[in-house]
Structure formats: structure tokens, C-alpha cells
């Protein structure tokens, strides 16, 4: 069975930050408090204090013995140890890109990051595949940069769960979605607390652990509501979107909740809500990652099938299970081999268009 990690992360080595500070010294500086984090446009990344606090940078990575995540060769060795054949790497520091406010700097940083991650992955013979970032708040340039990212061979483009003043169904984003379809570029929705993305529910908490409990599922429910009820998949029926790092247990509940609102009050949505939510899942618009140890996974497969679920490790972050993140997927007896193969790699191969 080929195992594809549909949501790992690159732990960017210092070369990215050093280059950013060299190019934009007025925007990117080291922390003034002596801690190993950056100050970008006057804000700390990560910000680990106050409402919606993020993870303290010193505690973000797994403490498992032998972790070697600072180079591509190290990551490949870690992948071998965990029985992973291919890893799709979402950003860590690069998750800041959608939040950057100066348009010229935002575009420049996105281009720098995309070239950096493409160069990082290139020597690995396709085993490591990078994910692009774009300055999504700044209009047409986000489309241009996504096209460039496709030429760089990046496997997907990051999309935040919401924008500062717009949800993901805003008409201004339609050219971006149309370009993603034209490029056959899948989109991965990925939030992160402490990175100055819109706060969805987490503004009531200042303790990172409390924030972490709710941030990812709230983010993904918000994004799914916008894309489904807001008609994005009707306007762009070939769009592929993955809802990441919230597990899979919430999906049957939320698809059913959306179904009830479509059935009883769908006509309250301006322009009319076009289709039952489950139809978008069946059509290949909606994809989700799981943690293989989730006890509810067999129930999700029973209710919704296995064709939209992808394995994710969250490597090398503190809440992942490396070096045993694939153990449950490979050994648990309560899913059949057909579902195991789909979740393990076949679905991710289709979603990302991997060889």
C-alpha cells in the first residue's frame, strides 16, 4: 500500500527567514524579546499571548526522539521511519502569507516562499511535494502567483478559512477559483491560531490549549458553510477543496446539519442554494483529512464512504504521532483493505494529481 501524507508540514530552515529579512528589512525583523520568532509588519509570528493565542514557538515541534525535520534529507529519513512514501508539505512560517497587508510585500513574500519550497522539494524525486501560498487578500496578483506556482510543480495552493472582511463565497474570489479549476490546482484550507488570521470563536480564549481545541474545527465548518451554501461549487463544479487538520469525525454531523438547512430553508440563501451538501462530496468537490486513530473513522466510512478521506500526519508538529502516525492506518482491524488503501494513498493521489 502506498502511503501519501496529505497534510504534513515543512519546518522551514533559517534560509527562508534570512532571505526575507535581507529583501524586506523594513517588514521582516527578528524578535525584540530574544525568542526565536519573527516580527513581520510589526506583528509577532507566532503571537502566543492574548485572544486566539498561538503555540509558543519553542513548543511547536514534536519532542519524539530522533526527529530530523530541518532538511529535506532529514524529512525523507523521518518519512521512511513512519512508512510514508510521499509527503505533501504545507507551510509552517509560510502560513503567514494570507495575512500580509502591504500588497507588494505580500506578493514578493509569496513568490519567495513558493520558490523556496519548490527548491527544497526538488531533489527528493517527487517524494516531497510543496504547497503554494498566495496573497489572497490582494486580488489578481494571487491568481498570477498561483499560475507561477503550478509552473514550479507545487501540488496545491493554500487557502485560509476566511479572509479579514470576506468569507470564501465572496464574488471577488471567483476569478481565483476559476483559475484553480483551469490550472487543475487543488486548494487546501488550513487555519492556524496565533498567525493573525480571522479569529473564529477563539477570541474568547487566551490559553493556547483551549484555543487549539476549537480553532481548527470552527475554521473548517466556517469554510465549508461558505463554499457549500454560498454556491462556490455550483459556480465552479470542478473545484477540489480539502478541509484540513480538523480530523474527519465532524464531517457526518456537519454535512447532515447543512442538509437540514438546505432542505428546510435553502431558499433563504440569496440566489438559491443549488444542491444537497452530500452531492458536492460525491462530485469530488469536498475532501477531508483524518487522523488514523480516530475511533469514529469506521462510522464515517459507513455513513459517507471512504472516497473523500485522506491520511494526514501533521508532521512534525507537537500534536502529531510521528514516528507512529501510520500505525493505526496500517493495522487497525475495523476498516477493510479497500478503505485502507483509499485513505492511505489512493485518494490523495487523485486529489493532488500525483504520479
UniProtKB/TrEMBL annotation:
GO biological process terms held by the UniProt record: secondary metabolic process
Molecular functions per Gene Ontology: carboxy-lyase activity; hydrolase activity
Domain Amidohydrolase-related positions: 64-354
Alphabetical list of Pfam families matching this protein: Amidohydro_2
InterPro entries cross-referenced by the UniProt entry: ACMSD, Amidohydro-rel, Metal_Hydrolase
Keywords assigned: Lyase
Membrane-traversing stretches: none
GO cellular component: cytoplasm
Protein known as: 2-amino-3-carboxymuconate-6-semialdehyde decarboxylase
Species for this entry: Mycobacterium branderi
